[in-house]
Amino acid sequence: MPNLIKVVAAGDVDSGKSTLIGRFLYESRSLPNGLVEDIEEECERLGRNFEFAYLLDSFDEERKNELTVDTTQSFCKSGKNSGILFIDVPGHRELLKNMLSGASYADTAVLTIAINKPIREQTKRHAFILKFLGINKIITVINKMDLSGFDRNDFLRIKEQVRVSLEKLGIESCAYIPVSASNGDNLLRRSKNTPWYHGKTLKETISGIRIKKRKESLRFLIQDIYDIAGESVAAGIIISGGLKIKNRVFVLPDKKEVQVKTIRYSGKKVSSATAPLAAGITIKDTFSLRRGQVLSGSRMPPVVKEISGRIICTEDIELNSDLYIRCAMQEEKVKITRINHLWDTSDLSPKNPPLKKNDLAEITLSFNRGIVMEKYNFSDLLGRFVLVDNRDRIAAIGGAV
Amino acid sequence: MTKENGAAYLKERETKSIYIIREAYYRYRDKLALLWSMGKDSTALLHLSQKAFFGRIPFPVIHIDTSFKFKQIYSFRDRLTKEYGINLIIARNEPALKKHICPEQGRYRCCQALKTQALKIVTKKYGLKAFLVAIRRDEHLIRAKERVFSARDENFRWNWQNPSLEMWSEYSEANPGVSGHLRVHPLLDWREIDVWRYTKAERIPILDLYFAKNGRRYRSVGCQSCCQAIPSTASDIGKIIAELGKTKIAERSGRCQDKEKAYMMQKLRSLGYM
Ligand SMILES: Nc1nc2c(ncn2[C@@H]2O[C@H](COP(=O)(O)OP(=O)(O)O)[C@@H](O)[C@H]2O)c(=O)[nH]1
Ligand SMILES: [Mg+2]
User: Fold this and answer.
1) Which end of chain A is more exposed for a tag (fewer CB within 10 A), N or C?
2) Which residue, by CA, sits nearest to atom 28 of ligand 1?
3) Between these two residues, B273 and A363, which has the higher pLDDT value?
4) Would you call A237 and B19 a contact, using CB atoms and an 8 Å cutoff?
């Protein structure tokens, strides 16, 4: 599907994220035969009314306990050449890792708010994490409108509350849509229950979102070195730009200029290659290539030995423990030399060290050797990093400011 | 879909999958193997692996032979083994086959013995630690929850309650420990129709069980005893792609294991069945 937009549903526990996706899939006829019947049967067995959320919450335990534990992805065709990939994530604070695993795929987000619940910390935390992940365009749906009799004033009141909260976090929502996820109002079809609402449906809003194209200068990331027919071939992926044989390119972080001798794609030698492509190269010079290096044209990305980074901690971090930074295929030992700011992600109030799971921080990191890193841009492999602890766990995710 | 758009989309998919295959090889080297069922997905995975390493797949390819497979697959297997220059390992649970374990004695028990146990045997014999597996999220509600790198414990169990953090394309957190193994899923983000489009574009050989004969074809190919053909007139890949654009029949609806619903699948998975 060439026009595929990936949408994460975020928001508080029980705001209706899973139901919204389930109902959307159902109405867009994206479900195979028999699945709805299976779920009907299942709901009957558990003595419940029909739950669209079960289309996403497929684990036995998720259904019994009525809560999403792990992230799920579901595809939905939205037009002749377009599709929406919905990503469901858990709302619970304890399940942050599963939320991040899902949200890291997303281009845009639907923030769900239940009309009958005040905006709680968890909503703000999710909104904030989305912003942190570079998801600048979010769509807000005010859900469970049926519970307030589709009342316009209730909608406007909650909308204003949400707008103010988001503004404080520096987030702008490109739409506010009154919906009832379980009944399908304003998801794909305009609802008769909200004659006072003149905006777009959720489907129209999602379809209107355009994703930026990436830049054009050459970035070839070396993954590994293979011995192919007696030659030492640097295998990697071209994430942007292109290269030709005889081109002079720079190897970073070494900043060494080399000339491309051969380019391989699949089993063949080719004369040029452009992104996106998994290719292999050899060079004319006597210089050995290795995993982690980046080939670039004359418009080079920065090579840094120290950065100011913004991170979200996914584990508690002890400052003196061994930490490694991974950025694309680079890995280096790293030290947190300073904590410049530290906040609690729930209400963004400043707090004191140590760094705890779920904290947000601005820190200074220094490395033994220079590494290639672009500025804070999560859609770019070189614009984001993870910190890994000595137990091989991802202790934080982040980007350079 | 315009032709260029479609080609660019497939290139993007291919690049990402090759990236994943190479990451698995970087981490596991001679402890990595590919699971090949001769079906369309794992054959596409085989093809991607060949492209990833510029012509020769540097790790073994395992065929889990339950002996209940379609007869057609054996000649297909042997033909591709030559064409792709594969180092093929055949995994069979001989003691169980001698005891005549079969689907009639219960599918669950049969899968467990002839698939999971057979894989355990070769894992041990060859000291394997990671497998490339061609599952996709859109196959099943449970598979929609998978990670690209997914750990299994020593009993081949999937610890789904405690999945790893998979951030962007950083897959390193999945850790099978000393006694477990890792499943790597390079096609996880692909859809059924993507696999067919890629198979067509790349002219990947395909079992003719997938093509309609006398008004029926197989949409998913596993053990003969547990797979049923669906009504179809799609006699080539182009027609299959057109059919998929319209159908509302679930891909694995012909599979008996899946008929036993989501819980069954979860149970099989958590017990190590692929
Ligand atoms: N009345 C009403 N209930 C809803 C609506 N949407 C979801 N729910 C219910 O709210 C509960 C939580 O929904 P769920 O989708 O699991 O929320 P999640 O935790 O955000 O994924 C379930 O019992 C749903 O049936 C709605 O539009 N109206
Ligand atoms: Mg949910």
Assistant:
1) C
2) A144
3) A363
4) yes
The answer to whether the CB of B132 falls within 8 A of the CB of B184 is yes
d(CA A294, CA A301): 9
d(CA B162, CA B181): 15
Neighbours of ion ligand 2 (CB under 5 A): A 17-18, 68
DSSP-assigned letter for residue A251? E
Question: Is the pLDDT at A327 greater than 90, yes or no?
Answer: yes
Whether the complex's predicted ipTM surpasses the cut of 0.85: yes
Contact A278 B147 (CB under 8 A): no
Task: Write down the pTM of the prediction.
Answer: 0.92
Task: Say yes or no: B203 contacts chain A, CB-CB below 8 A.
Answer: no
Task: State phi, psi for A97 to the nearest 5 degrees.
Answer: -60, -40
Comparing C-alpha atoms, which of A57, A60, A51 is closest to residue A91? A57
Cα end-to-end distance, chain B, whole Å: 33
**Structural domains in chain A?**
3-207 (3.40.50.300), 219-296 (2.40.30.10), 303-400 (2.40.30.10)
Counting ligand 1 atoms within 8 A of each CB, the residue from A12, A17, A19, A180 with the most, and so the one to mutate, is A19
- φ, ψ for residue A75, nearest 5 deg: -95, 145
Residue B207 predicted with pLDDT over 50: yes
Whether the CB of B7 is below 8 Å from some CB of chain A: the reply is no
Burial of residue B91 (number of CB atoms within 10 Å: 0-12, 13-18, 19+):
buried
Q: State the virtual CA torsion across B130, B132, B138, B144 in degrees, nearest 10.
A: 10
Domain range annotation of chain B: 3-191
Residue B31, SS3?
helix
Top mutation candidate among A182, A187, A191, A194 for ligand 1, by most atoms within 8 Å of CB: A182
In the DSSP assignment, the letter for residue B39 is: S
Cβ contact B250–A35 (<8 Å): yes
- State whether the beta carbon of A182 lies less than 6 angstroms from ligand 1: yes
Name the class of domain B3-191. Answer: alpha beta
CB B140 within 8 A of CB B252: yes
Q: Quick one: how far is CA A272 from the chain centroid?
A: 32
| Nearest CA distance, B52 vs chain A (angstrom) | 7
